[in-house]
Write a structure and sequence with these properties.
Layout: H1 4-14, H2 19-22, H3 24-32, H4 35-44, H5 54-67, H6 71-86, H7 92-100, H8 112-128, H9 132-151, H10 164-176, H11 180-194, H12 207-220, H13 223-233, E1 246-253, E2 258-271, E3 275-280, E4 285-290, H14 295-302, E5 306-315, E6 321-328, E7 331-334, E8 336-340, H15 341-351, H16 353-377, H17 379-392, E9 406-413, E10 417-427, E11 432-441, E12 446-453
Parallel strand pairs: 1-12
Antiparallel strand pairs: 1-9, 2-3, 2-5, 3-4, 6-7, 6-10, 8-9, 10-11
Helix pairs in contact: 1-17, 3-4, 4-5, 5-6, 6-8, 8-9, 9-10, 10-11, 11-12, 12-13, 16-17
Length: about 475
């Protein structure tokens, strides 16, 4: 029995790897483009298909099937994931367990932007299947979700309050189904989000969006709006540029960030009016907890003195390719960045830092108080509790790790008949990667073509001050 504490410690240490580290083999297969093997790995991981990690399994299976052009099968997985998110009901037993262990014992609680991306992939799948009505439903749900999500946060400080690219997708789906007026409204909404007070995660208004606003107002006869956009953009619409249909190229570049964790030390100090304050002077952080007229609880919290709290952080996986273009005959069309998922991920976690840190402090304080009481009753059990608490004090490092880093797009006019398009991707070192597509041009038809460049660099170092509130 003297080896029990050692075995217990080894077991707990093995559980301390991040979610990304535990799934490195799957990630490697995805990066190599061996999607068939990646799917088999997921299907063979029965533990990942159950309970707390099933949502992530469904997201990854939806992604893999999307890349394999199995669009109906992809949506089967995304639909189940969608239902899981909608029906999410906290299991209070696991919530209570999380207070004395860590958040990873709970079913995965999806990030807001990840929920939006479920509907993005469903919309693209439906567009590929030419089911425009279903694609419109999913595209509209992207923005409805954002409105509902922000209602959950009373401070309304979330930067990710509207999705410009979702509006572009709505406009494209409307145009593909022949509803030009609704398409114009969606493009106008996208423009307003890009031009918002804080901008849109470092992205400029895509030139393609400017052209779409000019073209739709011109075709609809909205000449006052058309002239406003002409003056604003310094561009005009050329009706002769309209060809035998178009292809919308969606380029998913690289891979989104992965979660790791960082730790913050807090000192418990007495405050006035029944308050205990947890402070970190170096980072300028202070979290008061009201204990009222309960001297026992107040003394328990003050007895903690110094506690360490684990919190998730994102690590960027820099993209291998810098930019890309489509070559069709003698013409070259640059693909423009329209959605920066990496930036959205970092900002959404930053926005909820204060809310989540307060919750993490309460969780850890509960664990430490229980540890102290147990040590008073039994020294050995108290030691085991101390070791267990130290090892299990970890952040939830799960996230949807097969999302792209950024999404670029462009509309390319086609010629009647067969069109051979070449996607040229330029790396940061100047190298060129190429892949070819064939599209049949037909007047009035809009085609959708997507491609995901899976190449990326290893996760980059992180500056912890990026999550700190402004002083």
């Amino acid at each position: 029995m003297r080896f029990a504490p050692v075995l217990f410690l080894v077991f707990l240490l093995s559980a301390c790897a991040s979610y990304y580290q535990r799934n490195m083999e799957f990630q490697a297969e995805v990066a190599r483009g061996d999607l068939q093997h990646a799917a088999k790995m997921l299907e063979g991981d029965k533990r990942a298909q159950r309970d707390r990690n099933r949502l992530l399994y469904l997201l990854n299976m939806g992604f893999v099937n999307h890349l394999q052009q199995e669009y109906e099968e992809s949506n089967r997985y995304f639909n189940e994931a969608d239902l899981m998110v909608e029906d999410y009901d906290r299991n209070y037993a696991t919530e209570a367990l999380a207070l004395v262990s860590n958040p990873e014992v709970n079913p995965y609680r999806i990030e807001d932007f990840e929920t939006v991306m479920i509907h993005y992939y469903k919309a693209i799948n439906y567009l590929k299947l030419t089911n425009y009505d279903a694609a419109l439903v999913e595209a509209r749900r992207m923005n409805l979700l954002l409105n509902r999500m922000n209602d959950r946060y009373p401070d309304r400080k979330n930067r990710y309050q509207a999705d410009a690219f979702a509006h572009i997708l709505i406009g494209l789906a409307y145009e593909a189904s022949g509803e030009l007026n609704n398409a114009f409204i969606a493009y106008r909404n996208a423009f307003e989000v890009y031009e918002g007070e804080h901008g849109y995660f470092g992205l400029d208004v895509p030139n393609q969006l400017k052209k779409d606003l000019l073209r739709t107002t011109y075709q609809l006869g909205f000449m006052q709006e058309y002239q406003w956009y002409v003056d604003r953009f310094g561009l005009t619409h050329d009706p002769s540029s309209e060809g035998a249909g178009e292809v919308v190229m969606l380029w998913h570049n690289g891979m989104g960030p992965v979660k790791d964790e960082w730790s913050v030390n807090f000192i418990a100090t007495p405050g006035g009016d029944g308050v205990v304050v947890f402070e970190n002077e170096e980072l300028g952080l202070s979290f008061p907890f009201h204990v009222g007229d309960d001297p026992e609880k107040r003394n328990e919290l003050l007895a903690l003195k110094v506690i360490r709290v684990a919190f998730p952080k994102y690590l960027e996986r820099p993209s291998y390719y810098r930019d890309a273009s489509i070559v069709l005959g003698d013409e070259r069309y640059s693909l423009e960045p329209a959605q920066n998922i990496n930036a959205i991920a970092f900002k959404t976690l930053e926005d909820r830092f204060v809310r989540e840190m307060a919750k993490a402090l309460l969780r850890l304080a509960t664990k430490k108080v229980a540890e102290i009481k147990l040590a008073e009753q039994n020294e050995t059990l108290g030691l085991l509790a101390t070791i267990g608490n130290a090892v299990t004090e970890k952040a939830d490092t799960r996230n949807w790790q097969t999302l792209p880093h950024t999404i670029h797009y462009q509309r390319i006019p086609l010629q009647e008949g067969n069109n051979q398009l070449t996607l040229e991707m330029r790396s940061k070192q100047g190298g060129i990667g190429k892949t070819e597509f064939s599209v049949e041009g037909k007047t009035g038809r809009i085609y959708f073509q997507s491609y995901h460049s899976l190449e990326h660099f290893p996760a980059a170092p992180w500056d912890r001050t990026s999550y700190l509130p402004s002083r």
